Amino acid sequence: MPDNRPATPAGQRRGQGEPALELLVHGVGGTTPQEMLGDPRTVRVTGDDTAGIHRRADDADAESRFGGYSGGLTADRSADPLAEPSADRARQRPIPEAYCWSNLTSGNSARALWLLLLPFMVANLAHWMRPAAPAHHRGQRVYDVLVRLVALSLTVLLTAAACEVALDLVAWQCAASERCARGKSWLGPLTGGWWASPGRRLVLAALVPAALTALLWWLSHRTWSAYESASPPPRPPGPARPLPGGERPALSLPGFWYGRRLVSRLRAAHTAAGLLTVATTLLTAAASHDLRPGGDAAPEALGRALTAVLAAGWAATLLVAVRKGRTESEPDERIDRWASKVLPGAALGALALTAVHAAWPRPDWTPSAQLPGTGVFAWLALLQGALAAAIAVTAYVLHRAAPPGSCAGRCAMGGLGGAAVALLACALGGVLTGGVAQRVADWLDKEGTPGVAGGAIAGPPVLLSWQAAVIPVLLLVVVAFALVAAVRAGRARRRLTPGIVDSYEGEPRELESRSRQIARVVAWARLTDSAPVLIASVTVATVLLGAGALAGAARTGLPPGPAAASWPGPLPAVAQTVQALGSWLMGAMVVLLVAMGRRAYRDAAARRTVGILWDVGTFWPRAAHPFAPPCYAERAVPDLTWRMCTWTARTGGRLVISGHSQGSVLAAAAVWQLDPDTRGRVALLTYGSPLERLYGRWFPSCFGPAPLRALSEEVDCWRNLWRLTDPIGGPVMAGEEGGQEVDRGPLKDPLHYGRTPEHPLPAPILGHGDYQADPAFDAERAALLDRLDRLAEGREAPCVPAQPERRPER
Fold first, then answer.
1. Distance (Å, whole) CA 506 – CA 729
2. d(CA 116, CA 598)
């Protein structure tokens, strides 16, 4: 960013008469500008209703006190002698601005639909969990391709589940059963007239999964236009602190937050995959009739030709999906026109031809019990398991190839977090799709049990019943982990209680209940660090139980209850109970998501609650699944970068970007995007930050020890505040090896132990919130601004905490 400021007059040090700005960035869940600025009267100075920057009304024209906004902003005291006190006050405290971005995740009602995209979001996270191996390592390419294949399989699974409900359960089974169709007037078009033949019923029902695919395409295209297309600010080339091995940190690359081209290409591939899944379902059903001995030769020949067409379509889809991934070194404005437009159109044309073929008259076509091709769910489960295993092997190789110190022993699950999350995304997709099929089958055949003989319809594939039976066992694993965690927290509380009062000098020492209360909060806050153990336990249980479900369904061909009828003792009753409970839980989860989406669609407060989940899960760009909820950081990071660049260039002043919780991650990512000159005028203040505790451990390639250490060396002054009572934030540990000391903490929480004459009421335990209530916040902010002044004068000063404190073990 060019520096257009006029030269500073001789004898006047930079910082005199130049304004200081504090850019506040809130955390998850969002807050109002009034709360962030501590003033009910605020104005928006730039931005829109989705994301904007606000000021107090009294500070709206703060720059005018410094001689105008467009010049060098040296204080002009001769023009107005009354302006001097205002300028003095502005120099004493920075002008506060609040960047509010919560509407990026919980703004309008359409965001309630994002609940349906939960498995896609989890799969996208797996892409960014790859270990911190060198970028040129061959395993990086393999890892990315495997994750994108898992993401593509989830799109196929969702579309196949829609085909199972609409084509199999409704059009194939229920419409052909007099018992099931009785009393269902809405089935009239499928039970009589021109549409009554099996093929035409399937074609009419195929509109449902095709419409679902179109809806996903529309959601992705709409958010792509608003998020991925937000251009980053231009910046001149400048040096960046390299990582071990000579590479630049990924988040410092100009094109990191500009995934327009990749998302466009992946959207085309996944749209084509959805349409081809519907076409393949129709063709498989028709082929089951056409390929029988003595069948008509013309439909058989047309079916074989369509098979070749669909095979070519699948090959093209896979090719587009696994092509070169993100281009991060520079913003890439190009669009792959062939992939983005021709591929989905060709898939739609193939679906139309297949629909005509399936609707062709076949007078002797009689439906079987279940739609042919329902075995695809078993093959999908096997494929997803194999892909997850391949991701685990690749991640292990990458973890071993990572440079020394890139993980420092703090990577979650030894670098295998991405494989575990990819597997859990597949399991979540299976639960949602299976739950919908189970609930629809129960609704269509109220008197029967899905998969059990004697009902009006045969029901969904047996595998879905086995997968449902797995859910109660997985819940037992989670409950067992919670009980163990509670016991550990209780022991930690008892161990910590005696030493709590020692950190409060001059406070009453007889309040043991107060010590227990504080120790309990600290002990529960530490449980956050047990998340890798929980994820690992659930992953292992999912692998074992999923393999058992596949084997049981393939071996018996019956649901768990009937399959266990000949087992000894209470096992048949247990199997029947687990199957019934799992089916209920599977359906309840789907109903709960629908209810939450319906409420969020109507209620802005509920929509904001749902948005908290996306605040954490959608920070990362859509590098694996284009139908995942959009990456709000691709709008927020350029917003913050533009603001810092333009403000420092036009005013020449100092700037502190101050981020809480998730806002600290956005702030760090934005500072990484600055050119060196602008970065020299910016200080970073983070508090309640998950930069190391969450992002550094689960996303080591972008936020591991090496990137955070590089950031601390690039930013002239950075301070991070943390508390032991905070379950989310923690130390970033970026300056432990000779660099600037970044962390200050743990801060006292509560600020006062007991009642005193100065503080007659008990002080609250703040935990993750209200860091600005601590006097350390103002002290560190003032120290950061003073440090920027000293750097501007050329007098290098060590960036040390305003009040150094010893950091104990967490």
1. 28
2. 12
**Helix or strand (DSSP H, E) at 517:** helix 512-526
Q: CA 592, 595, 601, 603: dihedral to nearest 10 degrees?
A: -100
Q: What is the DSSP letter of 743?
A: E
Tell me if residue 631 falls in helix, strand or coil: coil
Helix (H) or strand (E) holding 20: strand 20-25
| Look-up of token digits 């506060």 | 96
Separation of alpha carbons 175 and 188, rounded Å: 9
How many C-beta atoms surround the C-beta of residue 88 within 10 A? 12
pLDDT band of 404, cuts 50, 70, 90: confident
- pLDDT digit string, tens, across residues 173-203: 888 888 888 878 888 788 777 888 888 999 9
Residue 261: strand, helix, or coil: helix
Structure tokens at 495: 């161990």
Tokens of 362: 């076949």
What does the block give as tokens for 709? 């250490």
Q: Residue 682, SS3?
A: strand
Confidence of residue 490 (pLDDT cuts 50, 70, 90): very high
Q: CA–CA separation, 87 vs 97, rounded Å?
A: 17
3-state secondary structure 467-498: HHHHHHHHHHHHHHHHHHHHHHHHHHHHHHHH
Most confident range (mean pLDDT) of 150-159, 241-250, 741-750, 759-768 is: 150-159
